[in-house]
Design goal:
The chain is α/β, with parallel strands linked by helices. The protein has three domains: about 220 residues, 4-Layer Sandwich (Glutamine Phosphoribosylpyrophosphate, subunit 1, domain 1); about 220 residues, Rossmann fold (3-Layer(aba) Sandwich); about 70 residues, no CATH class. It has 26 helices and 19 strands. A six-stranded antiparallel sheet has the order 2-3-1-9-8-11. It is globular. Its EC number is 6.3.5.4.
Length: about 600
């Protein structure tokens, strides 16, 4: 995994701007601490920070072959097969890196090259002869790619901070950006950053940029088809697709591990990986995260029924993994809130982000690559809202919408129009849903799957990328393999929900290799702290911030609302205001991140 950046300008000579591309690229140091490289030409500057995973010796970037130069972030899991195919077509290779495979694929298939790739990727190819730039992002958007259009060129980067390092870009946020931040946050509208003028290449999209020509297009989408397989056939197909995806993603020239919560998804990945490594007489390392004294303060609720230790023990015993539990303190969680915000370049999931970042920092001490069970719930229907229905909300993971709006001062409520913004975002999103075959009820549920993929899954993938890369670690997500997505999309709900349990078809697909108790375990989300000490610490920090008269919190929010939030420790947000975990204490932490974001990034809020 890596960080990439670039500055293209068709009217300016850039050969003397090497210091600027270095400045942009070095904001991405955490994404690639192993090495850096640059390409300098008249109209193009490209930068690369490398986290070496495959071909540690000869896989450096930028990589140039003839008139083409590539910078790339990601992993192509079918690189070996593609290399052989390209060799048969007459291409020769000088490295064993997947970077060269992508570059030769571009030579052979031009703007259709990404259709041949199985993996996670964001890359840019500069054609020095034609003075053209090709940008592309993987099908599910696992790897990020942002850009900013100049009058006669373009800036791009793996993270927003890389673009903000350029003097042409101002840290401005307008009313539309604020409305998106506060009505949809921590999720974002795909293709849009919160900062004015900064956009992202959408998942499954590519772009061509030339002096007088710019084009963007979607190269992949889910296709609705009649599902013709029996349940037994479907179970077998799901098992094969998931197993193949996991095995493909075990490739690495550095130590590899899995994240293990004892839930269904991480247990499937751990089981397949452990069995595969055992064939090579290797032992799989597994990791879990916990919080100090959580066993004393854990509160069962409809989202989180149990803690993880018992089921982790069952898996560790069954597959003889080398397991380590990382236990985080409340103080660490609070201190890492600012770093988590900086990695995201915006306020986001508070301690859900900071805990994941700290977890990965500990894993990185021994392992650079890990596999995670992320995305299975979006693909197979594991979240409570698939069973509860919408209950009047457009995005069921966005709760307390009215309470959110009431936090604002009256004039900001009028400017932002949060309910209307959410409604228009929803209506625009569902327009893009592929036609679905089935009854009205089935179409409504399928719409929920589509919205999960477009918003909730993107939020978790963004969290996964920023927090793991913030720890200079690569975490892969086998359930986001597009071959799985394509197949499972068309499985009827009653089959997905086989046996009356969430992700029933997935449970049946792997029930013979997992401990029975793990197969039957009710879904639990990523863990969070329930310790009152954490609430006390974020309460104290927000109180300190509110003593600062210049804080943006005073400009945007009603004083009485903030005081009530503190006085009750967010009791009005005991139902999570986002997803399954973010309740009152996380909202207080979110306000801390918001304040620090505006201060540290020197955000200029445009009110007109």
């Amino acid at each position: 995994m890596c960080g990439i950046s670039g500055w293209i300008d068709f009217s300016t000579h850039l050969v003397n701007e090497e210091s600027m591309i270095k400045k942009m690229t070095r904001t991405l140091l955490h994404r690639g601490p192993d090495s850096e490289g640059y390409f300098i030409s008249k109209h193009a500057l490209l930068g690369h920070k490398r986290l070496a995973i495959i071909d540690l010796v000869t896989g450096s970037q930028p990589m140039t072959r003839g008139e083409l130069t590539i910078v790339y972030n990601g992993e192509v899991y079918n690189a070996n097969e593609l290399r052989e195919q390209l060799k048969s077509l007459g291409h020769s290779f000088h490295t064993s890196s997947d970077t060269e495979v992508i570059l030769m694929a571009y030579v052979e298939w031009k703007e259709r090259c990404m259709e041949y790739l199985n993996g996670i990727f964001a890359f840019a190819v500069w054609n020095e002869q034609e003075h053209s730039l090709f940008l592309c992002r993987d099908r599910l958007g696992v790897k990020p790619l942002f850009y900013y259009e100049l009058p006669d060129g373009l800036l791009f980067s793996s993270e927003i901070k890389g673009i903000l390092a350029h003097p042409a870009v101002k840290t401005e946020v307008d009313a539309e950006g604020l409305a998106a931040l506060f009505s949809l946050g921590p999720s974002r509208i795909v293709g849009h950053a919160i900062f004015k003028g900064i956009k992202e290449v959408k998942p499954a999209y590519a772009m061509i940029v030339r002096k007088d020509f710019r084009k963007s297009w979607q190269y992949w989408d889910i296709e609705s088809k009649q599902h013709e397989h029996s349940e037994a056939e479907t179970i077998e197909n799901v098992r094969e697709l998931v197993t193949n995806a996991i095995i493909r993603q075990l490739i690495s020239d550095v130590p590899l591990s899995t994240m293990l919560s004892g839930g269904l998804d991480s247990s499937i990945i751990t089981a397949v990986a452990a069995r595969q490594l055992a064939k090579e007489q290797k032992t799989l390392s597994t990791y879990s995260v916990a919080f100090e004294e959580n066993d004393q303060h854990f509160m069962q609720n409809s989202f989180q029924m149990t803690q993880d230790e018992y089921w982790i023990g069952k898996m560790q015993q069954a597959f003889q993994t080398k397991h380590r539990q990382v236990t985080l303190t409340q103080q660490e969680l609070v201190e890492a809130l600012e770093q988590a915000m900086r990695l995201k370049d915006m306020p986001s999931m508070a301690d859900i982000d900071s805990s994941f970042y700290l977890f990965c920092k500990e894993m990185k001490k021994e392992h650079t690559v890990a596999l995670s069970g992320e995305c299975a719930d979006e693909v197979f229907g594991g979240y409570p809202w698939f069973y509860e229905g919408k209950k009047g909300t457009l995005f069921p993971w966005l709760r307390s919408t009215k309470e959110r709006e009431q936090l604002f001062k009256a004039d900001w409520q009028k400017r932002l129009q949060l309910p209307q913004f959410m409604q228009s975002t929803y209506e625009e999103a569902v327009k893009g849903m592929p036609a679905f075959l089935g009854s009205k009820e089935e179409q409504e549920r399928q719409q929920l799957f589509y919205l999960n993929n477009q918003f909730f899954m993107q939020t978790l993938l963004e969290r996964n990328d920023r927090m793991t890369m913030g720890a200079s670690m690569e975490v892969r997500v086998p359930f986001a393999d597009h071959t799985i997505i394509e197949y499972v999309w068309n499985i009827p709900w009653e089959m997905k929900n086989s046996g009356g349990m969430e992700k029933g078809i997935l449970r049946k697909a792997f029930q013979d290799i997992l401990p029975k108790e793990v197969v039957e375990r009710k879904k639990n989300p990523y863990p969070k702290t329930y310790h009152p000490k954490y609430t006390e610490l974020v309460h104290q920090r927000l109180q300190q911030i509110l003593r600062q008269k210049h804080s943006v919190l005073h400009e945007l929010f009603e004083k009485e609302q903030l005081e009530q939030l503190l006085a009750t420790n967010g009791q009005s947000f005991q139902i999570p205001w986002f997803g399954q975990l973010m309740a009152g204490p996380q909202l207080i932490a979110y306000f801390i991140q918001l304040h620090e974001w505006v201060e540290q990034y020197r955000i200029n809020i445009i009110t007109t």
